[in-house]
Amino acid sequence: MKSDSYKKTLETLPSARQLKWQRYGYYGMIAYGMNTMTGAEWGNGYTPPDTFWPEQLDTDVWAAFAKQAGMSALVLTAKHYDGFCLWQTEMTDYSLKSCANWRDGKGDIVADLAASCRKAGLGFGLYVAPWDKHAPTYGTGKPYDDFFCGLLTELLTKYGDIFEIWLDPRVGAGVNGTMQDFDLIRYYTLIRSLQPDCVIAGLGPDVRWNGGNKFVARKSEWSVVPARLYNGDKKLELQSPDLGSRRVIRQDSDFMWYPLEVSVPMRDGWFWKKDDSYSAKTKDKLWKLYLESVGHNANFMLGICPDRQGKFHEVDTSILKNFAKDLHLHFGYNLLTESGAVTPSSELSEVYGIQNVLHTGDGFWMPSAEEKRPYIDLHFEKPELFDKLTICENIRNGQRIEAFEVYIKDRKGKLRPAYLGATVGNRQICPLRTSESADIRIVFTEFRDTPQISYLAVN
Fold first, then answer.
1. CB–CB of 368/346 below 8 Å?
2. Nearest Cα to 86, choosing from 8, 123, 31?
């Protein structure tokens, strides 16, 4: 058994595009298209283009709503499995240019939403399904790859910066009942050449899909995982309970930085359906999902669905706006920067001083390399009321921490165990029992190399 195989993971670091993507945290996917008009979750590829008629669509309203919902970006379903394209494409007539009844066939939702996101200060991303039930070349090999690359070229050259492109992993038969073997390497190479800062999610090598609408991040969530996970090893799948512990990787030598994106729809399905508002997730459910995604070293993409006219239902808007208020109420301050002090067990040097953890930026704290159980003491001028601790690891230099413990000092001056943590990664939100105390201690008990902490917050 290669007991020291974990050391290879320390050589696996995130790319610049992955670091940029990680900062988005919580964002939305707007599921919209022909499926919205027909009430189908998966269209058949035959619905006439003039069925699409979103009379009151205003993408500025969409972007404003996303901001009010606390989101940092929007991803649009530019083409779903039915093949209908929401932009002025030259590759197929099955698109908005064939909707003479809507904006005289000149509508371009991709262009409109890209502009709206820029105005609102939101990131903009695109969902594009390689599976196509309409294209006659689907299943013919290179001719379809040429067609799909033509679509990608349009999307990645005409609409400004794209932070994420989501290639749907689902694959099925095309219009002639044939299957297509996608030339993924060609797709990736094209995307990299046109948008080098854009992460490729879903089928891509940059961001890992959660594998289902209900699956969230693990408490011990690793961004550095064995490459065989991406290569389709059935012994290690997307929803396996452990993807990166020393036990799981003991025989591995090939690793990749493959962070998790939790993608979940606001309702039971991704697309709008009449009389389906009863299935909208409650504010409490969204809070739980946020803690179990963003709070466990993952990003959270929430699917939101406008109706046929392009409007969001009042149930969804009310819930999401109130959820955003809760996020601000819980995370809009940091007791440490208001009335706290931080003291480490040691500092490797002045450059890696503990004050770095009070600011977001490139700095980080690093203890002496000899310490076996380094710790950080958090002290307040007077006892403060809190119920959450956020810890961020300096993932620029990889993911190192395997376990940590949180203690809170009681009224008798004794440190009591309050939380048993595993990995940290980009962000770990530790829910604590509601406490009133002036002292917290964080002890790092297991790590693959000397811990590097970039930020701490107490709320």
1. yes
2. 31
- Sequence length of the chain is 459
Q: Is the pTM of this model over 0.85?
A: yes
d(CA 422, CA 399): 12
According to CATH, the topology of domain 5-331 is TIM Barrel (3.20.20)
Q: How far is CA 294 from CA 27, 114, 121, 300, 416, in A?
A: 11, 25, 21, 6, 27
Q: Tell me, what's the pLDDT at 3?
A: 63
CA-only gyration radius of the chain, Å: 24
Q: Where are the domains of the chain?
A: 5-331, 335-458
Choose among 269, 262, 320, 276: nearest CA to 35.
Answer: 269
Report the pLDDT value the prediction gives residue 1, as an integer from 0 to 100. Answer: 37
Q: Is the Cβ–Cβ distance between 108 and 115 less than 8 Å? A: no
- Report d(CA 383, CA 294) in Å as an integer: 28
Angle between helices 283-291 and 314-331 (to 10 degrees): 50
pLDDT tens digits for 145-199? 999 999 999 999 999 999 999 999 999 999 989 999 999 999 999 999 999 999 9
Residue ranges in the chain whose pLDDT is less than 50: 1
Pairing of strands 340-344, 255-257: unpaired
> Which residue, 422, 443, 296, 426, is CA-closest to 367?
443
Fill in the amino acid letter for 256.
M
CA dist., res. 21 & res. 44, Å (int): 33
Residue with tokens 């159980």: 373
* Crossing angle of the two packed helices 142-157 and 184-194, in degrees rounded to 10: 20
| Residues sharing a CB contact under 8 Å with residue 240, sequence separation 6 or more, in sequence order | none
CATH number of 335-458: 2.60.120.260
> For residues 112 and 62, is the Cβ–Cβ distance under 8 A?
no
